[in-house]
Amino acid sequence: MVVGGPMATYDLRQTAYVKLVLHALKHTSCAVNGVLIGRIGKGDGESTVEVTDCVPLFHGQLGLLPMLELALSLVDEHLAAGQDRSLQIVGYYHANEQFDNLELSSIAKKIGDQIVRYCSQGAILLLDNKRLQALAKENTNAPVVQLYVKEGSSWKLGGSGSELRLKETMANSILNDYRKEKREVRVVDFDEHLDDVSKDWLNPTLFN
Amino acid sequence: MVGASEERELERLEKQVEEGGGGVVEYLSLVRKLKVRRSNIVAKHGLQLLNQASARSKLGSDLWTVYEQVAIACMDCHALDSAKKCINALDSKFPDSMRVGRLEGMWYEAKGSWQKAEKVYSNLLSENPSDTVAHKRRIAMAKAQGNMTVAVEGLNKYLETFMADYDAWRELADIYTSLQMYKQAGFCFEELILSQPTNALYHLGYAELLYTMGGIDNLRTARKYYASTIELSGGKNMRALYGVCLCGAAINQARGRGRTEEESQELVSLAASVLVKKYKEKASSKAGLVSSILDKYKQLAVA
Predict the structure, then answer these.
(1) Which residues does the UniProt record annotate as the domain MPN (chain A) (predicted)?
(2) Model-level ipTM above the cut of 0.85
């Protein structure tokens, strides 16, 4: 029996990973956030959360409720009406405003709590800017985000026994390539959509 | 805030400049006018421009404004050597200038040499206590180091003297919101709305804050400010249109069952129809999804 919280392996797919990092790279002077989409699988007694995609939400002011509620409703509805019914919101990602700030803010925790109400293995991914900077100089297989898992009433870094891994080994190389060509300019988040509805928060052509 | 047509012009010039089609001077000028932050592109093309003697002489007296703009852009991109060169050029032309002094302070900030920067700003302020930019740089330093309480104190003190600085009130509201001190943020918005009652964005900001605070009174007031935003923005502001629908649903849920507010139904229906129309025009792939969500809000507003 598992005590104190679910132990899970979080498989972070390239689409989700690269998109969220590009979102942060687009808005270097602000905090950014978004939701993670994926599916929960079970096998061999422990669960795997496959994070297949993400929806970039906001940049700048992350602490206001109305548009967040709206965005979550729209994403939920979009997934419910979609072809793949196994997909759901499985987490939240966040990048702080200051370069060396690795604190999980209370806003991030609140949003994370909200997601955990609907998905018990919901996780938070926090961008580590130092690792991202180092990645430009030297390629590694490690993701540049930290995993937070809810255990009891608090969010724990890494979670006991939980693991985050990049599903595709090429993910960081692809990320580096995209950075060089400034692909981040093309990321659309929900904020931008609200300013111009013709911009699509699904980012259908981002990786073309 | 940049209007839609200005945004398009900016994007057009940016594309042209990046593709090597010229127009750097116009682009730099537009960036200054709109006060947008496009540091990578400004630094890259600005430096190229400034390195050409013929381009420099064509700029005439604008040369120094461009040096300043490019210096700041370089600092934003952490190209500190290039920034220093620009600052040195300005220093030679304008020795003992307060404006150049501020750039020197910013250069230390970009380096992370907070104490040296602080020294520069205190010197500037002792000679000229009404240098608002130096005051605000100090507050920005506190924010950059993550000292939010110091930043808030500094901004409050600043606003006691310079109470007509709307940008400062707006910044303070933002910092309070990120600290989840919503009441204090609300006070800032009230000041802003009192001084500029026709600025739709202030009404919108206040509405979003009130909604976040929650409770039926705040939600009712939020709805009023979303409605005034719609009026002041000619019905074009998506957040306000959505906001009215969100409020309608939230107010009804907060009230409890059995009592419907007539006004909220009509307002929600109107806002919803404007939204759907807009999506059908501009983003038809999303029209179905949005329609479906709005129907849910409409139902919640009367259930």
Answers:
(1) 10-149
(2) yes
pLDDT grade, residue A162 (50/70/90)?
confident
- Taking an 8 Å cut-off on Cβ atoms, the answer to whether A66 and B209 are in contact is no
**pLDDT over 90 for what percent of chain B?**
87
| pTM of the model as a whole | 0.93
pLDDT at A5: 47
State how many domains chain A has: 1
Eight-state DSSP code of residue A185: G
Closest chain B residue by Cα to residue A201: B286
B7, B238, B274, B284: best to mutate for the A interface, most A CBs within 10 A = B238
- How large is the average pLDDT for residues B193-215? 96
- Residue A146 resides in a domain: yes
Q: What is the arithmetic mean of pLDDT over B199-218?
A: 96
Task: Report pLDDT for A1.
Answer: 45
Average pLDDT over residues B101-123: 96
DSSP codes joined into one string, B48-73: HHHT-HHHHHHHTTHHHHHHHHHHHH
Residue A202 placed within a domain: no
Domain assignment of residue A204, yes or no:
no
Residues 6+ apart with CB under 8 A from B92: none
Would the CB atoms of A73 and B296 count as touching at under 8 Å?
Answer: yes
Contact A64/B212, CB-based, under 8 Å? yes
**How many separate helices (H) and strands (E) can be counted in chain A?**
6, 8
* Residue ranges of A 87-116 with Cβ closer than 8 A to chain B: 98, 101, 106-107
Residue B53 CA, distance from chain mean position: 36
Phi, psi angle pair for B165, to nearest 5°: -85, 95
Q: Do A197 and B238 touch (CB under 8 A)?
A: yes
Rounded to whole angstroms, the Cα distance separating B60 from B91 reads 17
Q: Domain containing A123 — which CATH number? A: 3.40.140.10
Across A15-25, average pLDDT? 97
Q: Establish if A206 belongs to a structural domain.
A: no
State which residues form the domain around A172. Answer: 8-195
Question: Six-digit token pair at A110?
Answer: 């609140």
Copy the structure tokens of residue B20: 């090597």
| Interchain proximity A107–B212, CB inside 8 Å | no
Average per-residue pLDDT in chain A? Answer: 92
